């Protein structure tokens, strides 16, 4: 998930309802301040103008932000996009963008981060994380980070995780088991935290500059 931090050069927005009152509402519902929500709108506008340019973030634009490639497929990116697309209409609107990104804010509670991560790995939306789902996500995360690991090593990682997390031995990890596993392994929450979000108003200029240089 760390690559999201370095590549999330968010772009364009849907200006129809992006006024001060909406900023105040979003700030009250998330870990962001009003000024930070305003800064996120600028980032959102940047991202949504990458490929289609209709003021909404489409999957191609989301993939481009994470992978620098609008056509490259990746399960990890697909899952994150689906989680952000709260309305399930195939695009990420500005309000969805802010509310979902808030999960990664340093001030967001560990409980919310744990719950989001569980849903991210629950590919079948069954309420459980099975061995195959865990392996698919581990492979997708490695691919997204351009890391190649032999399959036997991946299998070893997945097997160890299942043994440690599946406390009742039923071959799958439920929400309670996942929460306990993460509490024992707090480093897992690092991928759920983007430090620069704590003051996006200061971080934003550097992201804009890097993005503009890359697209000259």
Write out key terms for the chains shown.
216 residues; mainly alpha; globular; disordered C terminus
Describe the structure.
This protein has helices at residues 2-7, 20-29, 34-48, 59-67, 75-84, 94-101, 110-121, 131-144, 151-165, 175-184, 200-214; strands spanning 57-58, 91-92, 128-130, 172-174. The strands form 2 sheets. It has a two-stranded antiparallel sheet. Strands 3-4 form a two-stranded antiparallel ribbon. It contains 11 helices and 4 strands, in the order H-H-H-E-H-H-E-H-H-E-H-H-E-H-H. The longest helix has 15 residues, at 34-48. It starts with a helix and ends with a helix. It is mostly helical and 216 residues long. Helix 3 (34-48) runs parallel beside helix 11 (200-214) and helix 7 packs across helix 10.
Task: List low-confidence stretches.
Answer: 1-18, 205-216
**H/E series, N to C?**
HHHEHHEHHEHHEHH
SS content category: mainly alpha
Give the biggest beta sheet.
Answer: 2 strands, antiparallel
Global outline: globular
Radius of gyration: 18 Å
Strand content: under 5%
* Largest beta sheet: strand ordering: 1-2
């Amino acid at each position: 998930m760390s690559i999201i931090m370095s590549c999330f050069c968010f772009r364009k927005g849907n200006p129809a309802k992006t006024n001060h009152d909406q900023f105040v509402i979003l700030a009250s519902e998330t870990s962001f301040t009003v000024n930070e929500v305003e800064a996120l709108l600028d980032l959102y506008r940047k991202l949504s103008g990458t490929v289609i340019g209709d003021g909404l973030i489409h999957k191609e634009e989301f993939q481009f932000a994470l992978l620098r490639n609008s056509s490259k497929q990746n399960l990890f990116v697909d899952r994150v996009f689906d989680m952000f697309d709260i309305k399930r209409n195939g695009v990420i609107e500005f309000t969805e963008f802010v509310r979902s990104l808030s999960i990664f804010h340093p001030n967001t509670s560990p409980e919310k981060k744990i719950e989001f991560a569980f849903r991210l790995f629950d590919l079948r939306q069954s309420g459980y994380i099975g061995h195959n789902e865990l392996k698919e996500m581990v492979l997708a995360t490695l691919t997204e980070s351009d890391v190649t690991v032999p399959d036997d090593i991946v299998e070893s990682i997945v097997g160890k995780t299942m043994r440690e997390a599946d406390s009742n031995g039923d071959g799958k990890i439920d929400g309670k088991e996942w929460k306990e596993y993460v509490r024992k392994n707090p480093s897992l929450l690092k991928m759920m935290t983007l430090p620069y979000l704590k003051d996006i108003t200061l971080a934003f200029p550097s992201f804009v500059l890097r993005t503009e240089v890359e697209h000259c």
